[in-house]
Amino acid sequence: MLQLFNTAPENDHKVKPTPSDPHTSFRDLQGQDVVLFANTIYESNLARLMSDPSDAEAVAWLMSDERSQLSFLHCCEIFNIDPDAVRASIPLPRRKTT
Fold first, then answer.
1. Measuring CA to CA, which of 1, 21, 88, 93 is 20 to 30 A from 48?
2. What HEC string does 44-95 produce?
3. Cα 98 off chain centre by
4. Helix (H, G, I), strand (E, B) or coil at 4
């Protein structure tokens, strides 16, 4: 496995950096980072819920009506996803009534 990371391409001993686009602003990069991070948060929390529907932290994130940055509703807005449809598709354990 280490061999994959320690070898250089056979025909090119120097890896050339990808040139950056001079027209990309810092704000554009920040926006891209937020989208990538939101995707990571969204997918990881849904994966946690699918593997363990009783994961309290992931359930709290999914059920929250908060609209702060990277909340469930914020992620749904970024990706134009219906939050109610997502919530309905997750098999959450029923809470015990006492």
1. 1
2. HHHHHHHHCCCCHHHHHHHHCCCCCCCCHHHHHHHHCCCHHHHHHHCCCCCC
3. 36
4. helix
The two structure tokens encoding residue 93 = 């354990």
2 within a domain of the structure (yes/no): no
Q: Whole-prediction pTM value?
A: 0.61
Task: Tell me, yes or no, whether 16 lies in a domain.
Answer: no
- Domain-embedded: residue 46: yes
State which residues form the domain around 48. 27-89
pLDDT tens, residue by residue, 20-61:
555 555 455 556 777 888 888 899 998 998 899 889 999 999
Asked if residue 7 belongs to a domain, the reply is no
Domain count of the fold of the chain: 1
